[in-house]
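User: Could you check the structure of this?
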Amino acid sequence: MKHARKDSNIGNPRRVELSPLPAAIAALCGSLLVAVPAVGTAAPDSGISQQTMNFDIGAGSLSDALLRFSEISGQRVLFGAELVRGLVSDGLNGRYTPSAALQRLLSGSGLNARQTDSGSITLEKAAEKPLPSGAATMPAVTVLGQAVYDANDPYNPAYSLPNASTATKTDTPIMETPYSVKAVPKQVMEDQQVIRIEKALQNVAGVVQESSSAGLRDSFNIRGFSTGNDILFYRDGNPVPQNGGNAFSSKRDPANLERIEVLKGPGSLLFGRVEPGGIVNLVTKQPLAKPYYSLQQQFGSFDYYRTSIDATGPMTKDGNLLYRFNGAYESAGSYSDFVNSDRIFVAPTLKWIIGPRTQFTAEMEYQRFDETPGAVVTALSNGSSAYLPKFSRNLTAREPGWNSNKGDRILAGFNWSHGFNDNWTLSHRFYYTGINADVRDAWLTGLADVQGNVARGYERQLASTDNYFTSMNLSGKLDIMGLKNTLLIGGDYYRSDAKDPFDVRFIPGNFNLLNPVHNTVGFDDIDVNNRVTFGVDNSTAWHGLYFQDQIELPYNLIALGGFRYDQADQFDHLTNLKSGNENRVSPRGGLLWRPIPELSFYGSYTENFGAQNGINGAGGILPAQTAQQWELGAKTELFDGQFSATMAYFDLTKQHMATPDPNNTLLMRSIGEAESRGAEIDVSGELLPGWRIIGGYSHLFFANTTRDVGWDGGDGFQGKRMPNAPHNAGSLFSSYEFLGGRLKGFKFGGGITALSERQGNWNNDYQIPGYVLVNLMASYSLNIGKAKLTTQLNIDNLTDKYYFAGSNTGADVLIGAPRTFLGSVRIEY
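Assistant: Sure, the predicted structure tokens are below.
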């Protein structure tokens, strides 16, 4: 028995396939809809609003026309996919009442519209013969669901998406996935005016921001474990490094993101050598067959200006060649002294539809950055972070003109797929990523004393990285012994060559955090005898083969199982050390029970093969990281699939974590084991028409180092809580949009983000205080001809709370932004 599964294509609602019925009853299924009395085509007394409004609906499929009608009128239209399959509409243009507009759209279709008790409009077949006298009445075979948008529709208003590919690399409903996965759709990012990915991830339970490279690099903590390694993000399911060697690089621009999916827990089976806390998968905007254009201008506090563009559509008359272009230019000051940024991002994409089952897509991204590190405070040695009188003080002693981070990042690649039939598809991807960065950075060398005094250093880096990735997948569906199987067979290869020379010089004397005195000492003025040079020059390569099977079992059970084989090599060109033939088989499996369409229960076990750790103090390469996770959870999907929630309990253990060697902070050592146990709840969707929410809460019962031998033979970090792992963290954002009446087009909303106290470093020498932030938003949209104009204002940190966003697991703590205003004007066509 297969329960409600929402299709991602326009106009396909949820449907239910019933288990075999007695033949006499099954014969009635084709005419069950007449059991609901029809009242004729919508009329003025049907309850539908009679206020006239402008309708601009093009000719085409009836399902598309009804979706456009629902968007314009604010009326929910409920219909089954089979009911409208193959029906077309002549479209509509002009001012009509919704009742008259719907009547015109349904003209000649053989369908009637009826108002339901909930205020929605249901479509039914007209002129059907009644059931014979005494015949049994049964529920409809087709579940009437709210008309749904394509997941990639630019006008999709959803806060919750029914399907996600990150957990399985197949288009599987989240309700049928035995893992915790959360999607942050485009509409959420627009309502919150997301200009950095960290803001979007605040909507996901268990994801906490860290500080890396004074806030220049993206870095997160998921389920207690840091994900701040080189491969932080995945792009459309493929690893895309963000950083050049150890250089600062720059945060990834979100201009071409359709949504962000987060798979909680290990994802090694499908994604290779990743951190076990979770996978952050950036799903990009793809070319569309229907033209769409958007131009947005944002402006805000601290001289912030950002212009972005989104354009897509066909390039040929036959529609076989599609394009999409996303771009953004950003210029900004900062609340922090001596900090500014200038960034350019462009992302063109071309898609060639070779045939009904074959496509080829070429993609590119280019990001140019010229920015300075942000405001970081070094913790005091008395166990606290320094509270200072104003947000703007740059506590890292970043002198005027000293600090800069310049460089670029380019991605070029292609993917193609071919469907042999309706069941089997072969796909292939290739990506190249190149990163170059010229970094000049003044920094504080450790914890300050109780008077605020700390030594300083100044460094230069000239980093470059070349990365290559390719993968091939064969996916298909087949019946084995009467059971439906969804198979995935694939392999991938990844190589990275990184160079990052360091020239570090230590500045004589101390810098006082509480009474900073800045100077203009140049890099070349520092005594070269007080100098350290070292660098990164290594090559890493790994390849993997994987197999996965999803099986639909009797009694509404779904099983998922698979395994991956990895083989990895690492070579350090500076020391001529090589770690080769590291290999491992990593299994995972899960079982999900969906007793009713609205509820699922699941359990899963996953193993993970992580990244190499680098060079240890004895001159050898550290062993690769491994991890294991048990997870139990429940999921629900309500209100015609418009609202979803996931609750999960997990136990995650990781071995061979790398931490700085206390005897030489330029090298690493491997601790024995760390473990996190916790519970999470994620919610998202539409509770009532126009009222949408998204948020989550996580509680880490335990997030400690459980086994470690220190450099002196003692316990080292054993028993210490991991940094940036709060006991409690959560967020909730809600918005309400008026769908009709005089206030139609007006939207307002707000939310909170809260974290409890966290440990700042591995030794638990200081704590980062907890905080609660309040955010607000308001927007107004109106149609001007065929265009849609939206004005918007967001206020973040409404109460002007002084807080710390996270640490770099060492001594540096990133200062959060004060009250910030961000306005926007966007026109779409």
